[in-house]
Specification:
The chain is an all-alpha fold. The protein has one domain: Membrane associated eicosanoid/glutathione metabolism-like domain (Four Helix Bundle (Hemerythrin (Met), subunit A)). It has four helices and no strands.
Length: about 140
């Protein structure tokens, strides 16, 4: 197990989780920008969005619903001393899945490649991270 450095003396603190927190924060910011841009483009109706533009709002909201818990699980795993390869696998899966879902949800109504595989990847990440956390708790 890799050691977690608990000091803040010029050494990176939780470097793997920090990477994916930053990347997913940028995704969230990008999704928020798309919502604001759609509202500004629709300013004549008071900024109210109608379908399909409200898909952008749902894409952003869905990201806000899933990403905090996913990143919290990654931080907990990193504190538990999880292998770096596992943390990166979970982080890449989460990040790619959220990009796919955001694109799929924000660009079209109904089921599509991005929404399906983005949701699937996110759920797989949740299951693996939760199982790993339970492993560390009980074993």
């Amino acid at each position: 197990m890799p050691e977690v450095n608990m000091t803040l003396e010029g050494i990176a603190f939780l470097p793997v989780s920090s990477l994916y927190i930053a990347l997913n924060a940028l995704i969230m910011l990008g999704l928020a920008y798309l919502v604001v841009a759609a509202r500004q483009a629709n300013a004549k109706s008071g900024g109210k969005l109608e379908a399909p533009r409200d898909n952008r709002i749902r894409a952003h909201a869905n990201n806000v619903e899933y990403v905090p818990m996913a990143l919290l699980m990654m931080v907990a795993l990193e504190f538990q001393g999880a292998e770096v390869w596992l943390l990166h696998a979970l982080g890449v899966l989460l990040t790619v899945s959220r990009v796919l879902h955001g694109y799929g949800r924000g660009s079209a109504d109904g089921a599509n490649f991005g929404r399906f595989y983005g949701t699937l990847g996110t759920w797989i990440m949740f299951l693996v991270a939760a199982a790993a956390l339970l492993w560390y708790v009980f074993f």
